[in-house]
Specification:
This protein is α+β, with helices and mostly antiparallel strands. The chain has helices spanning 11-19, 35-39, 64-70, 80-97, 129-133, 140-143, 175-183, 198-211, 242-251, 259-269, 274-277, 302-323; strands spanning 23-26, 32-33, 49-53, 59-62, 100-102, 114-118, 124-127, 152-159, 164-171, 188-195, 232-234, 281-288, 291-298. The chain has a four-stranded antiparallel beta sheet with strand order 2-1-3-4. Strand 1 (23-26) and strand 2 form a beta hairpin. The longest helix is centred in the last third of the chain and has 22 residues, at 302-323.
Length: 324
């Protein structure tokens, strides 16, 4: 390429190179200008000027050096929007693979959040390709529509840049999505513990937030575009030992932690049968003094096993009643 200092071209020739076959220029009144008309708006051959793509109408500012530089790439469109169209189509497909439709035209940087809508429930959110690649939940509304009686996770995050800690809850099915959403925003996972159901998770969350209420974080909604700023406190406040808190609340049979006692009371008169329990059998092989020992247990927590058996009994009874 010729060095700029050695170029021997006129302003009108520079304007002609900028326009090429991809762009046109307009006067303030909207009239199409030729190279001579565009040159009249340029202070020098290096000036940036506003031009319009003849294909898509996108207005951009270009100079002769930018034009010659991009021409070094064979087959490249001079319009950045047209050049990015294949990538934009790929991005649309990428969002669809995650159950979303982009409300954005053209190419977006991978870290750029764009408006999107869930194809399943229609909920709207703002999310980037980088976040989706990092396993962030595509739709937070769908992620939370889980069985309230299923095992849930309580977690604590630290956000050094915000000088805040946060407690949150999620189902085991989407824990990685929810936690990944926070990690993508600079959060560091400090602890996570399973509890038997959503009510128990709420009980733990309320207990912690009550304990740290004197240490507000000052966080606002814009600090947590992924949601959850109201469950934060200053990192100058107390640390949280989730395991100890859960052990205490379980011992007190706090709301959500009292389900197992109630389930056991239900099965006192009609114990679970072998046929009902066998589906939840889990056999692990452990070594004891050089001998393999088969250890038989449950594939799920006892509360979940008893809950499912009771639900099936009740569903069976209802079916028999309808038949009669």
């Amino acid at each position: 390429m010729i060095e700029p200092s050695k170029w021997d071209i006129t302003v009108e020739q520079a304007a002609e190179i900028v326009l090429g076959s991809d762009f046109l220029a307009r006067s303030p009144a909207g009239e199409v200008l030729g190279a001579a008309g565009l040159a009249a708006q340029m202070e020098s051959v290096w000036s940036l000027v506003a031009v319009e793509c003849v294909t898509c109408g996108t207005v951009t500012r270009r100079s002769v050096s930018m034009t010659l530089g991009s021409r070094s790439v064979p087959g490249r469109s001079q319009c950045s929007y047209c050049f990015a169209l294949p990538s934009a189509a790929w991005q649309d497909e990428f969002f669809k693979e995650h159950g979303l439709v982009r409300d954005y035209e053209g190419y977006a940087q991978f870290s750029q959040r764009v408006a999107a809508r869930c194809l399943n429930c229609g909920a709207e959110r703002s999310v980037s390709i980088t976040e989706l690649k990092n396993c962030v939940a595509p739709c937070l509304s769908c992620a939370e529509t889980t069985d309230p009686e299923a095992v849930h996770v309580v977690y604590v995050m630290h956000f050094p840049m915000l000088r805040a800690r946060k407690i949150g809850i999620t189902s085991t099915e989407v824990r990685h999505d929810r936690i990944a959403s926070h990690e993508a925003q600079g959060g560091i996972l400090l602890a996570q513990q399973e509890v038997p159901n959503r009510e128990a998770a709420r009980t733990v969350e309320d207990f912690v937030l009550h304990a740290v209420r004197a240490f507000p974080s000052g966080c606002v909604s814009r600090d947590f575009p992924q949601g959850g700023y109201t469950e934060t406190w200053s990192d100058d406040g107390p640390t949280v030992d989730l395991a100890c808190i859960i052990e205490r609340l379980a011992g007190e049979e706090a709301p959500g932690f009292d389900r197992l006692r109630k389930l056991r009371a239900y099965f006192e008169s009609e114990p679970a049968t072998i046929d009902e329990l066998v589906e939840f059998r889990h056999i692990a092989i452990i070594e004891v003094d050089g001998t393999d020992v088969h250890q038989v247990g449950f594939s799920e927590p006892l509360e979940q096993v008893l809950r499912k058996i009771r639900a099936r009994r009740q569903a069976g009874s209802a079916g028999m009643t309808e038949t009669v």
